[in-house]
Amino acid sequence: MVKRVARTFFGVALGSALAQAVTPGLANAAPFVELLTTEGRIVLELHPESAPLTVANFLAYVDDGFYDGTLVHRAIPGFAVQAGGYDAELNPRQTREPIDNEAPACLKNRRGTVAMARSLEPRSTTSQFFVNLDDNKHLDYVRPQPGYEGYCAFATVVAGMDVVERMSRIPTGPAGVFASDVPLQPVTIARAQRGEPPMIAALEPSGPADANPPKKAVSGPTMVRRPGKRADTLAANRPNPTSKDPR
What we know:
247 residues, alpha+beta
């Protein structure tokens, strides 16, 4: 019980610290983030008004350089492209403490939105995110019940959706701990960085970026379910998952 209370307190304290650290910069304008990838440039507009803790968490990873050199490790045409957790050798990177799931109040999982991946446990969001390639309504929050807690969409793609589509069409297969859906031609986020509105104004995607990924270490696979599946993401200790609907 004492450990549980301490863990809960630490999570609340962490969330508060993240929000306080980022909120001053979010007060006047929505933040933008550029993803410079080996397939081209993607620009995200973040929405702290509906997902303040999730945006603060994502920006903390961006500011730390955590995403630099990570792979797109899952790509499913017509569904989603997922990234943000693995290095060039598909080794998991060490993440921050997980945060609460803000899905009840955030954006809906519509085409072009960006949401956080997680495990079966609702409070397991760390670094991994995915871009919706369709209106994935089955990923939205319904109620506080296992399988229905939803995924928090915290950003929208304002430039480079063609890049995301191109990623989704790369042939995939098994690799590392994953049984399927890993791009067989590696796709790397060479750099993730904050962007200022004047720099973003043109919203023109650039060409592919050079990737020279650094190495870090350790966390487990989290994934969002395939289209039509109500179930939540995979637990970190299940490297060869299935996508069965429990309903």
